[in-house]
Amino acid sequence: METTAPEGCPHGEEQTRTRNTSCMNAIDSTPGSSALSGTALVNFIAGIAATGGLLFGYDTGIISAALLQITREFSLGTMGQQIVTSAIIAGAFVGCISAAPLSDWKGRRRMIILAAAIFLTGTAIAALAHSVVVLTLARFILGLAVGASSQIVPIYIAEVAPSSRRGRLVVLFQLAVVSGVFISFIAGYLLRNHSWRVMFGLGAVPALFLLFGMVFLPNSPRWVAMKGDIHGAREILRKVRSTRQAAERELAEIIDAHDVQAPWSELRKPWVRPALIASVGVGLLCQLTGINAVLYYAPTIFAGVGFGENSALLTSVAIGVAMIIATVFGSWAVDVIGRRKLMLCMIPGAGISLALLAGILTLNSNPSGAAGWVMIAAVVGYAIFNVGSLSVAVWLVGAEVYPLSCRGKGMSLVAASHWGADLVISLTTLSFVEAMGAAGAFWLFAAINIAAFFFVLRYVPETRGRSLEEIEASLRNGTFAP
């Protein structure tokens, strides 16, 4: 990266960290902008960008209710249901990998705008589909946008946000995701007597909001600096920080890191490997612990064990409420309690909830009365503990732990591991339930939750309150791992 002295400091052929530090001390006496303007702008940026998460959640969650109608209309068997459901996941896998080089080349902001346009295209095709093939293609297109959003939006927010508030602002993306899922459950229940096409078509509203909203937002200051435009990075930082001093101090940290865009091979280097293990592991476990199996197939599974269709859809609404509550709590806790501690406290609760659920189904494959209510409580408890830990942390950890030079590519691997695991889960859940019973599926997910606890304990460090440049320094000096 080309290094340029902060404004007001002497320029020269060689610029050292000592020079940067002395310049920052001189600049600290410069009056800055009001705290309100910087904070408000960052909140506004994060809120608009997080609409990508709302689309992510709505388009992946709406299939839960729509699948009941689609199955009847197109006479789908188990494999057909799984293919229609998982097409969006296959698209997300392709989308997150493709977005990495594009976001490094054209910038995070431009790629979010492109993702919004793809959301609109996929929504229109899905709403008008008159065959399973066209519907599957539409959901694959939607998946491209979902995957791109999951890779780009958390990075964009993390690179704009100050370190003291980065956790809750990045988790705003996950809050938008679960809000989108919840809205999809509400829409599915309210529109249960209407066409599934209307359910899909409603996704156009947030897509338009994201498309037009992103046009007015700035680029990521770190991406701009990585491209060599130090002056442009300074101007953006001055707008999104509470004081000019804070902006210049952060710019000096970015300059001192001397990051330039690195090839994919950078991720294979030993010093980057701890970040790769921690982030990809959380990305995999977020799915392998079973959360999307519950989201996608809860109505189908509950209807299959004796609940009526309307009751099954209402159970999904309860799960959606639980997810929002858990994410709101998690968005506070990641910056107060910490990312690592939050996961270690809550993951065991998810395992216990699933074990309780599996135990009930083992004793009675068609529970009713009190056992039925305990089963619903166990599912809701699982949603709270899992979403409030792994689902809250997955995009945050991935956006934080990589060096700037390969952050986009590293985050794409996190997203790819997340969507790859999700694809496996969505393609096999109903088949596994048919072969082994719902109890067997939930026993397996309970065991994976316990394994997730020990993974976090061993490999995931605490990043609360640390700047992105400090986290990168810990990778370089070997102090990253817990």
Automatic annotation (TrEMBL):
This is Sugar porter family MFS transporter. It comes from the Bacteria. Keywords: Cell membrane, Coiled coil, Membrane, Sugar transport, Transmembrane, Transmembrane helix, Transport. The chain crosses the membrane at residues 41-67, 79-100, 112-131, 137-157, 169-190, 196-217, 275-298, 310-330, 342-361, 373-398, 410-433, 439-460. It is found in: Cell membrane. GO terms for molecular function: transmembrane transporter activity. Residues 230-257 form a coiled coil. One of its GO terms (cellular component) is plasma membrane. Belongs to the major facilitator superfamily. Sugar transporter (TC 2.A.1.1) family. It is a multi-pass membrane protein. Residues 45-464 form the Major facilitator superfamily (MFS) profile domain. It holds the Pfam family Sugar_tr. InterPro entries: MFS_dom, MFS_sugar_transport-like, MFS_trans_sf, Myo-inositol_Transporter, Sugar/inositol_transpt, Sugar_transporter_CS. Its main location: membrane.
